[in-house]
Specification:
By secondary structure, the protein is mainly alpha-helical. The chain has helices spanning 30-73, 81-89.
Length: 92
């Protein structure tokens, strides 16, 4: 780390000049750091979307199995099947 002068015009050894036309330079690799966060965020969103889709698919399979049991046991079905379907339909 360099102490004292920085790149660009300054009024002193450490302070930046009070000149609106001379903004401080971007720190090295600033854009690269932002890119990493954007890519990481997009990856996380994609992962969560896929995970939710898999959960909903598993729940749809479970609902189908419960309905099949209800048909074979006549009248012993659970009334909560529609809740799983409603939760998963929000993602469509």
């Amino acid at each position: 780390m360099q102490v004292g002068r920085r790149y660009g015009r300054t009024t002193g050894p450490v302070l930046w000049g009070q000149n609106e036309k001379t903004p401080p330079p971007d720190p090295p690799r600033a854009n690269e750091v932002r890119d990493v966060f954007v890519v990481g965020g997009a990856t996380a969103v994609g992962y969560l979307y896929r995970l939710h889709s898999e959960i909903c698919a598993n729940n749809r399979n479970r609902v189908a199995a419960i309905r099949e049991q209800a048909r074979s046991h006549k009248g012993m079905a659970s009334n909560t099947n529609h809740l799983w379907e409603r939760a998963c339909s929000r993602m469509r």
